[in-house]
Amino acid sequence: MSHTFSTWDDTIVALATPPGIGAIGVIRLSGQNSIAIADILFTGKNLLHQASHTLHVGMLKNENEELDEVVISLYKAPKSYTGENIVEISCHGSPFIQQQIIEACIQKGARLAKPGEFTQRAFLNGKMDLTQAEAVADVIAAHSLAAQQTALKQLRGGFSSDLKELRNQLIGFAALIELELDFSQEDVEFADRLQLEQLIARLMLATTQLINSFKLGNSIKNGVNVAIIGRPNAGKSTLLNALLNEERAIVSEIAGTTRDTIEEVLNINGVLFRLVDTAGIREHSTDSIENLGIERSKQNAEKSDIIIHLADVTCEDKEEITWLKNYRNKVIDVFNKYDEAWPGYRNASAIAESAAGIYISAKNKQGIEELKSMMFEKAIGETIQTENTIVTNARHYAALKKISECLNDIKTGMDNNLTGDLLAPDIRRCLHYLGEITGQVETDRDILGTIFGKFCIGK
């Protein structure tokens, strides 16, 4: 949809910095009257007569009551984050002072902003498209280098540019197809079918690549879930401690020490891996508490992205955990205590990897770095190409799947020599879903509410 200057005549206010005590707090106003409201409270100079993108130091007063000495930042429409007049008040970080200033702004005509309303106004005023608006939330929530770089690329419009290029190419052919409909009785073709076939092939390839990137994008954005599964006393808690390089889990020679799951986070090459140390798996146990832990281990294995199957090479009981066969595609076989099985052999790097799995000594932290590399490669690949477009948003992924279906329908129609009037509806649907991702078509208000409702207040 085409975005124009908002018709809202109200002004919103919110704390833009995290709540709590700090050195500085920033309060943001946006709307037609934001500068006028700040001017009523500000002493020393008339803010209405000051230039955009300027800073002003002075005292804030509500009637005769002094609130705080502040720095006022002015951003006049349309050259601002929201496309409206924006005022940012940098005050001292006292929650009491911040609340006083916000209440004073509300008394002078502002209202408290809803979650994400500043960014929503930026979108509706055409300052950014929907993918960029969603990337703002991803940048704020980024918990690793890879997540930060991926979100920043989307914020700069990398994903948007890819989609717009695809959409513009398809619009050109859609216009020619629609023109054919106007001259349907003349039996003429304005659109070159060979060029359209080539375009559809390029679109299908690009869409497939974006769809396939979602698994990686989801791992970068949300982290990789890793379940450590094994029989009792295989060394699962010792392995967790070795991976984290700290004593996080209780280690004991007594089988069944770990009764419940222990969750920790490990950063490998800028990607977060969420490790879950589970209870030891025994096919038969008379301990009801242990059985509950084992059942939870199975649940964690099912929802994990990677399963580390830890086996004790010194154990004579080689009975397999039979249900793990259902998850072979995400299992890494790890054989622990090789140094006890072969006491004279100390070259961990030479023995670390084999066709059957990876050999480690969790107790002596041998083979741990090789295991981390294997975990990263299984989840991500050898490296993360953040310069390429990576889909991280489930809404975008769902729309891309619909685009792929539309493109397949168009290709099938062309293979069957369908006329333009029969191809046109599928082309229109494809254009709709492409535009739905970036917000270039009318976007349902409920969808917008869901997207921006996930933001923090003040952003």
Structural commentary:
It is a single chain. With 459 residues, the chain is α/β, with parallel strands linked by helices. The protein has three domains: 12-128, Gyrase A, domain 2 (2-Layer Sandwich), CATH 3.30.1360; 137-213 and 390-438, tRNA modification GTPase MnmE domain 2 (Four Helix Bundle (Hemerythrin (Met), subunit A)); 226-379, 3-Layer(aba) Sandwich (Rossmann fold). Helices cover 44% and strands 18% of the residues. The strands form two sheets. A seven-stranded mixed β-sheet has the order 8-9-7-10-11-13-12, sandwiched between helices. The chain is flat.
Brief digest:
This protein has 16 helices and 13 strands. The chain has 459 residues and is α/β, with parallel strands linked by helices. It has three domains: 12-128, Gyrase A, domain 2, CATH 3.30.1360; 137-213 and 390-438, tRNA modification GTPase MnmE domain 2 (Four Helix Bundle (Hemerythrin (Met), subunit A), Up-down Bundle), CATH 1.20.120.430; 226-379, Rossmann fold, CATH 3.40.50.300.
Looking at CATH, the homologous superfamily of the largest domain is P-loop containing nucleotide triphosphate hydrolases
Gap from first CA to last CA: 23 Å
What is the CATH third-level topology name of the largest domain? Answer: Rossmann fold
The chain-level mean pLDDT equals 78
Strand content: 15-25%
CATH architecture title of the largest domain:
3-Layer(aba) Sandwich
* Spans of at least 5 consecutive residues with low confidence: 1-7, 249-260, 348-352
The total of beta strands comes to 13
Summing up helix and strand content along with how strands pair, one would put the structural category as alpha/beta
Write down the secondary-structure element order: EEHEEEHEHHHHHHEHEEHEEHHEEHHHH
What's the main sheet like? 7 strands, mixed
Helix content: 40-55%
Per DSSP, the total helix count is 16
Cα-atom radius of gyration: 29 Å
